[in-house]
């Protein structure tokens, strides 16, 4: 979708969009254009909301309808009579839009490349790119292209004919106080009602199932309606996710499909059209290379169900992952930002400070300057929190604002190309309740355990095979050691997928072509000798056991290369770069 709002007059505004795209809905008459990107649903009735509904609400109650809808969406209303345009983004920043503002007009689109095509020459935003290479996502509402920004979560934007933009927050994660706290029983009841409502607005649900706590929580809500559930699991046949999912679905007589990810599947990886050209939904803002198997499963499942129920971010939003039982010692923003950077897994900080390994990779800044820039970006993001009073408030806000808007959004928008999509753990009332949970209750997953036990004794008694991170990382480290000595793994890889391994084994030529320095779109960012050295180390995959840092650097490097390949593939068709 692309719309161009010219200065002084909106009367002739047209919207360019793909009518057949599943997550688009439009209504037009002589006075108004309404466009929905995504899937809003009513909280007061059992129905999805389309553009015609929004128009009728707008005529009667202006923008107050936003209080009675939930879900993932961006809504655009162009009022040609009043010469005002409105943009409303869902509370979680999942289905968002991008914009570029100049003196004569504002461009708005769901696709950054569409905006670029109407801008002429563009310039890379190195700050955003470095954050992405480090985390796998950027911080805040900037993008990788200077002058293009992202509309923010839970905001109403008003644009007048002078192109003056006003924005207002209509929902706040940290609004509730202790007096509003639900009991576990009330929380469970609301959670169950949310999931029963989903059945009322769908025919069949697609639920990816691993047997972990999040998917187990979701499945427990449907013990009386299992015939309407289609589940699937992807992974190697030895993986515990696969074995547990097959066991549960067989015991409960649930429809289940297993998609095998083995060497044969990964041999064909680089021929996948999603990888080569259909990755536009990611807008370069998240690594998509290692999500190719997810797309493969979605394409195969789409004919079986109309609604996809995602369990994404249950661990971050409800269980304080990846910080666990740690919290900052101070509410000073710089202190909280430093805590986040130290404890959030990233390329430069993977269980320990690994900055020295990337010291001379970047041409414009040394690693100390880069770390300082990242610290300031996190600090700035924290400053946007409204109502934060404790260190845990700031941590929860960061997980919500960054993981939702800048991490989960791409994969959920991608899912929305195949299904109507709803997030199980994205509920406007329940998400505000998390603030009122103690740190211990979060890290112990108390509310999820309560829901599962209340709904299904069978599911509550099943073991959690992949819940012990110490065991997981011990296996990964021992595999590195064994591979270094005997050129093979000691254990099956505990991860569902291991893209770096298969990339090295089957697609070395693709890797070298994609990251050929002389043809890279990002080459001005890097020192040629140093980036080529990192690529060589990745291919060699020879772990050093001299120190903890030397060992962990290999995991960090895997992440860095996957992030880099994804961005290069997205940038390759952009000819307007300076």
Structure description:
The longest helix has 25 residues, at 391-415. The strands form 3 sheets. The chain has a 6-stranded antiparallel beta sheet. A 5-stranded antiparallel beta sheet has the order 2-1-8-7-9. A 5-stranded parallel beta sheet has the order 14-13-12-15-16, sandwiched between helices. It has helices at residues 51-61, 112-116, 126-135, 184-200, 213-220, 240-252, 263-267, 273-276, 292-301, 314-319, 333-343, 367-382, 391-415, 428-433, 439-443, 446-455, 457-461, 469-486, 499-506, 508-514, 528-540, 548-571, and strands at 2-6, 15-16, 24-28, 32-42, 69-79, 84-89, 98-101, 105-109, 148-150, 155-160, 165-169, 205-208, 229-235, 255-260, 307-310, 420-423. Among the domains are: 2-123 and 144-169, Aminohydrolase, N-terminal nucleophile (Ntn) domain (Glutamine Phosphoribosylpyrophosphate, subunit 1, domain 1); 178-295 and 430-461, Rossmann fold; 469-571, no CATH class. The model has no long low-confidence stretch (mean pLDDT 94). It is globular, with a radius of gyration of 24 Å. Strand 5 (69-79) and strand 6 form a beta hairpin. It is an alpha+beta fold and 578 residues long. The chain is built from 22 helices and 16 strands.
